[in-house]
Amino acid sequence: MDTIAEHVITKCGGPKAVAKALNLSLQRVYCWTYSKEKGGTDGLVPAKHQQRLLESFPELKPEDFFAKRAA
């Protein structure tokens, strides 16, 4: 199953597009998909980047940053 970060990165057009929009290195963007044990964010997009991503990629919605729950 994709993590939230993988979903967001894909919806934005890939890690290069995200890195460019946020002025981050590709490595930093990829770290969002890593476990905390490996220096990542456990598949979450850091809150400090969410607003900028929403402004840069109109296809993103706030709910893209939250896990979908079964009804």
Q: If you had to describe this structure to a student in words, what would you say it looks like?
A:
The chain has 71 residues and is mainly alpha-helical. It has a single domain, classed as 434 Repressor (Amino-terminal Domain) (Orthogonal Bundle). It is built from 4 helices and no strands. The radius of gyration is 11 Å and the shape is globular. It starts with a helix and ends in a 15-residue tail after the last helix. The model has no long low-confidence stretch (mean pLDDT 93).
Q: Tell me the strand percentage band.
A: under 5%
CATH hierarchy class name: Mainly Alpha
**How confident overall, as mean pLDDT?**
93
Tell me the count of domains: 1
CATH fold description: 434 Repressor (Amino-terminal Domain)
- State the end-to-end CA separation: 18 Å
Give a short account of the largest sheet: none
Q: Low-confidence spans: pLDDT under 50, at least 5 residues? A: none
Shape category: globular
Category from helices, strands and their pairing: mainly alpha
What is the alpha-carbon Rg in Å?
A: 11 Å
Short description:
This protein is mainly alpha-helical and 71 residues long.
Question: Layout of SSEs?
Answer:
Blueprint (H helix, E strand, L loop, with lengths): L3 H8 L3 H8 L3 H6 L15 H10 L15
Key terms:
single chain, 71 residues
